Amino acid sequence: MNPSVNQLKNLSKAGPDPLKDGKRSGARITVESLIRNDVKVIFGFPGGAVIPLYDEIMNFADQVRHIMARHEQGAVHAAQGYARVTGRTGVAIATSGPGASNLITGLTDAHLDSNPLVVLGGQVATSLIGSNAFQECDMMGMTNCITKHNFQCRNIEELEEIIDQAFYIASTGRPGPVYIDLPKDVQMQTTANGRSGPLDLPYYVTTRPVDPHALARAVTLIQSAKRPLLVMGNGVVQAGASEVLGDFARSLGIPVVTTVLSKGVFDEFDPLSVGAGGMHGRRVANYAFTHCDVLIAFGCRFSDRVTGNPKAFEKNKKIVHVDIDPYEIGKNLSVHVELNADALDVAKALNKEMGDTPNPWPKWSDKIKRYRSICNQCIESAAKARLLPKQLMGALNHVLADDDVVVTGVGQHQMFAAHYLYRSKPRTFITSGGAGTMGFGLPAAIGAAVGNPNSNTWLLDGDGSLQMTVQELGTLAAIDEKVIIVVMDNGYLGMVRQWQELFHDRRYSSVELNNNPDFVKLADAYGLEGRRADSMVELKEALSYARDAENSVLIHVPVEKESNIMPMVSPGASLADTFGECVKVKGEFFAKEELKQSDCSTGENR
Amino acid sequence: MRREHTLSIMVRNKPGVLTKIAGMFYRRNYNISALTVGKMHIQGLSKILISVPVDDRDVELLRRQIENMVDVQWAKLLDRNQSILIEVCLIRIAYDSSEERREIMANSHPYRPRIRRVSDRSITLEIAENPDIVDDFVEVMSQHEIFDISRTGMTALGPGLPPIKRSDKEEIVDDVIDEDNVN
Fold this sequence. Notes:
The complex is a heterodimer.
Chain A: H1 5-9, E1 24-25, H2 26-36, E2 41-44, H3 51-59, E3 65-68, H4 72-86, E4 90-94, H5 98-101, H6 104-112, E5 117-123, H7 139-143, E6 149-152, H8 159-171, E7 177-183, H9 184-188, E8 190-191, H10 212-223, E9 228-232, H11 234-239, H12 242-252, E10 256-258, E11 273-276, H13 283-291, E12 294-298, H14 304-307, H15 310-313, E13 318-323, E14 337-340, H16 343-354, H17 362-377, H18 389-399, E15 405-408, H19 412-420, E16 429-430, H20 441-451, E17 457-462, H21 463-468, H22 473-478, E18 484-489, H23 494-503, H24 519-525, E19 529-532, H25 536-548, E20 553-558, H26 592-597
Parallel strand pairs in A: 2-3, 2-4, 4-5, 5-7, 6-7, 9-10, 9-12, 10-11, 12-13, 13-14, 15-16, 15-17, 17-18, 18-20, 19-20
Antiparallel strand pairs in A: 1-8
Chain B: E1 2-12, H1 17-27, E2 34-39, E3 45-55, H2 56-68, E4 72-78, E5 84-94, H3 98-108, E6 114-118, E7 122-129, H4 131-141, E8 145-157
Antiparallel strand pairs in B: 1-3, 1-4, 2-3, 5-7, 5-8, 6-7
């Protein structure tokens, strides 16, 4: 949850902690500012340009914990995992030059998925900036497009203000990553001054009040709907509006679709939940997208992965778009009611206006519930020599608790997880959505575990994805927190291979991973426990064992090599053109025979 | 269809702000035709005027994206027909004879240029006019030998008052001023 606007804007100075001559160094000011901004854990990797900072971090080890990653990319992804699970602002630190440039991928990922991060990069001394000095890199120029905002501190007097501003910007409005460039000489300068009073951010607007006219239009539109659909995007998770909006959906009987990024924001065991829609969306979800007449979207930016062809997507429906970022409203689709406000405010207002209305569209919601349970039953494919990814998902569903956190890497395994796993609470499915960063999984799971001490953190990763940041096994082995790593190994860069199979005549150009290490031995080499599961019996046993174990366990699961994640929408095609073995007739999501066979009165399927 | 649009942007006068804004245009594949920036009468604020060919559908999106930036106070799309658009042009023209110089003066006279410098070989003229008129002037002068030209790009003032300052959640400010009646 975002701290209240007033709290942050009026942060007062904590008071200088006097050193011998009554002054504090830039490094000390930095660490104290982090603590004052309620930072409990930092993920980082030291280097020459941040040695003064790290020296001070050691002085405050009892107040803030530093976890050393094995690569700066691991540090920033871990900060992301922590932020995504807790809702707090994640913090990462790297040194100048190559250390800072290793943060770029993580910043891009955080920017696209709106994660609140404050990332500190060391920089060469101010006198050397611009001279191509040793380990110098123009991070300000490089991060202009991939951060919500960035700062370079050239003078110790502005340091405290910069850090406070950074936290305020990162965590309010539409959250996002903020980068701070910290030259080494500024870290070593000293001053007796601090910061006080409100932040100097006169033109930064975090949100706008709910426009009563727009709200009235939205209510009228929803009341006139015959087949409404509620989209809960990641904005609902960030606003903390999942409960209020969930109540609204349930009392009116409006089916709810989520995105891959927001999976879990609405209880997927609820008969009204159709799961995640889009390119690899469930049939019932894309059916709902295609056939609804009023789409009420909260905190969703309608990425091309969700809409398919946007012209086809917006046809035959009216759209109410609620978002805190005015830039996203109507960006990709034509919108009929624009509500630029905080999702929680709008959800409360809508609940107040309409919350008592009994379900006015029972035929539509019953239809969706029936289709949902058809989807839930899914088609059993013939068992092959190796386990099928679907079977792995089924086994995971049996062993996952509601409060457990599932983190994924990127690729087929990610889409299998989004499609088949049941998640019932927000912030329990952590995945790289907008950027799709392979290698996100392991470090993000580490950060998630640090932010999630009360239940298990599971990582479902692919053999390709895992190896992009596999060095973070070292980070995991060094901390007390536990992650259960399930490696879905199909010996390929599965998603790319699938596209090559479907769209390029099975020309498998550079996607084979036929020399993977023995993952069990690799885990063992890092001091972690490893197991291998080649059959359902072994898999179930390994999963139960891992669930109850004290320490991290890696489970290596070889799966069928050329399994495809279906159904699928071709890039740029309309959602109605979903294809796959479960779509019997193209253009018709559900065939008549399936409807006859279904016997779902309640649609419950736990 | 890309049409020439003009954006007036009020920003905090901090290093890097101009780079960020220009970078955003580059990133979205818009080629800035003209850009001017100058200080406002209010301390710490600057005004950026950008002229850029953009699709009509996309220009509002672009405006919102710019206005989202932390150091931008507001971004306004100017109606070119209702705004005052001025560009300064300095032009140095060569001549061999006094007759040629007389011809230059006669040809430029309708534009009422100021004479900035005269030598025995060249004359430097200046006009400050609507950019379209500046284009005409340059074209007319190109029948002579042009040594050098320097153009500032366009600055502009739109009709009416600047937008009311955006406020955060706590202060709700109503936009009650009728812009059409102020010019």
